[in-house]
User: Fold this.
Amino acid sequence: MEASSLGWFLNMAVSVGLSIAILVLVSLGLSVLFGMMGIINLAHGEFLMFGAFGTLAGVRGGLPLPVAMLVSTLAVAVFGWIVERALIRFLYGRLMDSMLATWGLSLIMSQGAVFVFGATTQGIATPGGSIYLGGYSVSAYSVVLILAALSLLAFVYAVFTRTKYGVMARAAVQRPQMASAVGIDPRHINSLTFMFGAALAGAAGALLAPMVGVMPTMGEAYIARAFMTVVVGGSGVLTGTAAASALLGGVENVVSYLFTPFLGQAALLVLAICLVRVLPTGISGRLRRKL
Amino acid sequence: MNRAFRWLALCCLAFSTQYPAIAADKEPIVVGSVLDETGALNVYGKAMADATKLAVKSINDAGGLLGRPLKLVTYDAQSDNAKYTSYANQLALRDHASVIMGGITSASREAIRPVADRNKTLYFYNEQYEGGVCDKNVFLTGIVPSQQIAPLVDWAIKNGKKKFYVVAADYNYGHISTDWVKQYVTKAGGSVVGAEFIPLDVSEFSSVISKLQEAKPDVVLSLLVGGNHIAFYRQFASAGLSSRMQIVSATFGLGNEQVVLGPKEASGIVVAFPYVQEDSSEDNRKFRAAWTKAYGANYPYITDSAAAVWNGWHLWALAVTKAGSTDREKVIKALESGVSFDGPSGKVTVDGPTHHVVQNVHIARANENHGFTVIGEEKSVPPSYEQSVCDLVARPNTAKQFTPSAKAN
Amino acid sequence: MRLIGCAVVALVALALGFAMPEFATFQATNWALFGLLAVSLTLVWGHGGIFSFGQGAFFGIGAYAYSVAAMNILPVTNETVSSVVVAALAAAALAALVGYFIFYGNVGDVYVGIITLAMTLVLFTVLSSTADPKYHIGEAQLGGYNGISGVPPITLPFGESGTTLTVVQSYSTVILVCASIVAGLYVLLHRPFGRVLTALRQNELRTQLLAFDVRFRKLVVFTIGGAIAGIAGAFYAAWAMFISPVVFGLALAAQVVIWVLVGGRASFAGAFIGTLLVQSLSFALGGGAGDATPIVLGVVLIAVVLFLPSGIVPALARFLVAKRTSGSAGSAAADASVPQEQRFAELPFRSESGGATLSATGLEKRFGGVRAVQTATVSFGQKGVHCLIGPNGAGKSTFFNLLVGRFPPNRGAIELDGRPITHMNSHDRVRNGLGIKLQVASIFTELPVRENLWLAAYGRRRDEAVADLRSAEMLDWLALAHRADDSAGSLSHGQKQWLEIGMVMAAEPSVVLLDEPTAGMTREETARMAAMVRLLGQSVSVIVVEHDMEFVRALDVPVTVFHQGNVFASGSLEELRRDERILDIYLGRQGHGHVA
Assistant:
């Protein structure tokens, strides 16, 4: 089958879309924690890793893949709640200390995963097979991931605007004293928010598990880029993450394609530096979007 | 003044932890190993560390060396390069090791080398690498491109696949090996239609897969390394390319890729290593029995790196026996005279002038059971490039790494 | 004092170097160098308030620069000392470049961390790809991921081909270098530069408003920090005889932060102690803890954060050294007194400035769609007091901020003494004679009262002796001499306001801008403030934005009324009080020829 230009275009669209979707998935959890709680969670990659391993365990236990992903996400959420109660709640307002403590947590989590699962574990193959787009074939799962990322953005939007928790959380972020003056318990909200952020990280890991090699150290590869995406995006959880992912992910993918993946990585870093310099409050700050 | 005394107290406290419980006994022969058992490189390091312990134990079970038992001191470099310098120094100066074996990445080897050289401690690097190291004090038992790439390329060409596309990890090993690929492919009558270098922390390959579909090679030669790169094989298969392009690889399997991937994703990939666990030789059967006894039947896979470590220890042991001493100069001389060991991968012989080994190379194909099936063998493949540039018998003062592009220019 | 402590520790360390077995000395060299790297972060962060995630990058640049320079220069000069200098300069140059980018771009705290992190990752990515032999600088192959092997150790220019230092000699050199650098830093921080830096870290805005160029100072600190890290890197490459791009990775960047946090953020001793503890722990674990090493490290880090949050050295300090009474519980409650009225017969010292005119012409400031100030034109005389009043939302504060230089106007011009200052930033305006007191007392709450005044005086005169004198005079005049060594934060609210006025005056301004100076004051205090303002008005121009009508009346000076961003009317308070339109504005009434 000869490659047609429509096929090339569709293929590029899926490829770029996938890069952006992965950045969205990987950064959303971190953005919730940073944007709504001012916490830097350096163990974010490890929460993601737990979500991936949980999915593996679920599938091996006989659950169908989507169910395993869901169960794994919930398990990571519960783990997030435990971590918040045991550690994070002492660290609000202490940005540097939260970095240090979560770095320690990440060491424990990743070595813990080695103890439980071993350094090498059997993974899950990508479901879905491939689809043909005018001369190019792409993995059907890539499209699934893109849709998943969009759905997750929509889900987060719904949670923050339609649920009682979401409205309270946004109030607590914008005016903490006022919020507690009207009876919103910040500690309760914070627990839920951390859980939510952890769950999002776990969901990202669950969704990525069929696409990459799941290993205890897989979190490391994502943390730096998630970080940059969150900072470039600013504190608006949705606008920021979506805009920054689109910009950084898109540029990286296109440059990788036109030149080499090394230049793609370099381009992402340089672009991030320039954007932070020019937009010190991030893209969402510039657009004056709070969510 | 309080401050000063506090400093003093703390310094003393810290340094006192470094004083050894003096194992000053002359009886055992102290030997040392530095590997990454934790951190990102533990996938490689674990099997190598296990092989180390088993090798030393097997030497001791056979009566030790020169009537003395071996005492193994191991350090975990925690995937932190700076620690290699520290631990290698420790082994040389504090533990007085007769030999240091260790290092996984080439960077860690290059960190150990100057320390071992300065402290005049013999050093073995037992891991596949990009080739070219020429140092009187160093012996290298891993396979090098001049041994590995040719059989791999030959297999592809023989099976009618002439258009190659190289996907390599973006660092020294990947670049140098790719140069070798280009040389051998051209010599064998094929063509390299593209080469892509992927940084080590990339796990998303859609742009590469797009380019592959545009270039339409017959065979993809993979030199990808590390946990993140496993995703390539997964994404390649899920894009439906497995039926259209054959993957051959010089690195697939070192990190247990075939265990992590599913049967449909891995099967069909062809590799070339000295050691393949499924090899049916008698020596391998005994080796595997010993391994299973020590580490259980559920061990993920005995990698080629583990076998290289095993070879390294036994070659050194044979040299010590031949030299009748652990003195470095004598052992080096013994090694250079051509010590030979019948190991699980077949006969391994030290090549005196280059300090590398002549060994067999097995061609294998990944099967549906998270393992490999042997489909071919080349016996006694010499390290031809190293032989052409390095002669430590004639020029013993060399201590550098040769690279093909430099030579070509 | 600290220098003696430093010397003692250095001597002890040197002695240990000869006493310890060689392997220990070798390892100790490594820890000392990492400690020096931690010192660079302590300087930049603990003292400069700049959270740099990139000290590892300067360390790496220093290491690579040394390696490349040494491999090229050694054969020619038989020494590598010059290579160390090259390394320091290279690291300093990069730090200056990055610092300029960051500080002159007004990037905020966390984002400085991000930019420095991104910078270090870019360097990692770039240097990892230099594997090809074509990437070489003279004799030195960059080597990509494999790094540069065979880096020459420190070599001195004696003897035929130079003398390479032995392990013990290298160690001693490193100890001496560390001790010299730390001693140098102690001296630097003791000098005015250091005192201003401490103030800057605590209250950047007020520091700027005392005529200190905050951006430049941060740049200087950052560059020095970079140079120190570069020197540490150079010696490190010489120690390991090898360098690879791994020094630019996230792991080392995070480790430096961990060392500093464990030891105590602002303590140089803490930098070494934190590094020593963490590194020796992970070193010891690697020799025996097997797989559990990361877990033990993780637990230790979490324990430090939860139980020793300010680091080990401060915790030890609190534990071992008796607390100095910092004047809190005892004296604070007792004395909330303010200066007596009779002191306001004359100013504490003869100011060299004789007042200046300030005029605003056609100023306009928009925020989005809102025009907070529209075509405001006012002139203030060279001496005398002038009040700006108006209801809430009239634009007084925005106008005030335009005069201060908080932001530039969309249109219009401001002239000080005939010179245009429209586009000058705040610290330059203060240097040119503007004195600014903000509504919320902006002082250095953690510094002693005396130091607050000293900084203000130094900001104008840049002479320590004069600043000492001025601050003493000011203390007397403000009747705060008995609280001179107490921290400014322990003063009562009214006293804080007085202190800030005192600081403004100590800077000898020609035009004083006061934003609601009597906010939160008692009636007595307000009366005294009025007396003080009148006194000031005799020698310089004072512009007061106020809400308190009692105060305005007590002052009995020309008044300008703002309304909806415009200058509505000017005159004496008596005149304006008879103007019905003014009443309209204040009472929100319609009618009486009301100007919309």
Remarks:
- The longest strand of chain B covers residues 356-366.
